[in-house]
Please model this.
Amino acid sequence: MRAAILSTGTLAVMAIAVGAFLVAAPTSAGAQAKKAAPLELNGDAAARPWKRYDKWPKRDESKWSTLDAVKSPPAPKDPQKITGPITGDAAKGEKLVADRGRGGSCLACHVMGPAGGANLPGNVGPDLSEIGSAGREDEWLFNYIYDARVYNQDTVMPPWGSHGVFTDAEIRDMVAFLKTLKSPAKFKTVLDDPNKRPAPVEKRENLDSLENPGMWAVDKAKALWTKSMASGKSCNTCHNKPETQFKTWAASMPKWEPRLNKVLGVEEFVTRHAAATTGAKWLMETDENRDMSIYLHFLANGAPIDVDTKSAPAKAAIKRGEALASRKIGELNFACTDCHGKAANHWIRGQWLGELKGQYDHFPTWRTSLLAVWDIRQRFQWCQVNIRANELPPDAKEYGDIELYLAAQNEGLKVSVPGIRH
Amino acid sequence: MAETPKIRVPKTAKKGEVIEIKTLMPHIMESGQRKDKDGKAIPRKIINKFTAEFNGKPVFSANLEPAIAANPYMQFFAKVDASGTFKFTWTDDDGTVTSTEQKIDVA
Model:
């Protein structure tokens, strides 16, 4: 276990601090500052060992692939042979397909006739309300649930049987239920029909501190800005006109950092730069770090996202990020690009899946459902825990590559931070 | 770090105009009814009083009770006849008094 940077290396910090100098913020992608900004290069920028946030599911998902390791079993090559018709318990099957405690519920992606009261089903997958009269063989239905990859390598359907989420007997019950589905779903309200449910539009005034508590971070960060830290210096010592000095800086992040061989986002940059200059201990995913990140993004509000996508190391990082974003991970075997690519602009249960474009310009954002600020790395971490994969620490290099890939998809969109979202 | 109150008062108004004022104080408003993991009651800690003054004279005040949600938000109206300063104060159960002021020019 390595110690987090901020608990060690005081001497090194001081040495760098002596050499610290005002570094002009780059005005656009590729505009390199003449002198590289001081950064603490030793140690980690987030807590080690990484401990999952309170109130997040505690399940250990170490059996499954993550963004830093491929571990899940490979897809089976052939469908299982089923002899004779499947006779399961259709009533049990109906319960299972709507059981959110088990698979997350088939209804999350499929309309399934009367199952679950047709209450807010999703439409990532086809409507199965008439699958019973579609002429599908039992073997096909069984294998499609067990592991749909035997029929379609590009499927986004989780391998429910291969990954052991449901037993063979349970899958037989679900097949028995599917065979009873022969008439279109009846929805109680128009909102229950995922094909008619209107896509959410965010209309709140995200920069109004009476509406968006995320804005309170701006006041807090302004106070932190002028506060003297361990070295006797504050941010203000070198950056005494943040409003003009940081008008575009956050829009140019994340950026490849050759001294660390990874992509740094605003949050990790703040941790390492503050450690090297003022001695502040602002590890990622602490309140101070979030406040600073919001403030630095806030200062760049209105600036179009303009990250370096052209230099050789940036191109390589984006390529890696793209590969990671399409890696299948977790028990549910999803890739970022499954939900936010192939299945984008559909409903997963009551949640709208957006495209990659539009998922970055408002981070860090206030989460009204959680009463908390989430930065982009915490958002990444939740995506993984949510699909039952272990998350990485927020300063993981894999997140850096994905963040740059994501930012590149969001080029030109104007920074609007803090955002406000459900 | 101490939370700072958020207020909205127009910078200018006409003589005799009725203006809208919005105030919000970030605060947990712990009701005293909740219990912690060990079953012990979490002590009450709320903002129990809010006042608004204009040039030293009371304009509006409210006694807040434990059922009021976190981050108490007040929206009210005041008639302004002359230029002056609004002063808002929030009193915490622990005795902390937070206040903030804003000037308004009345023409």
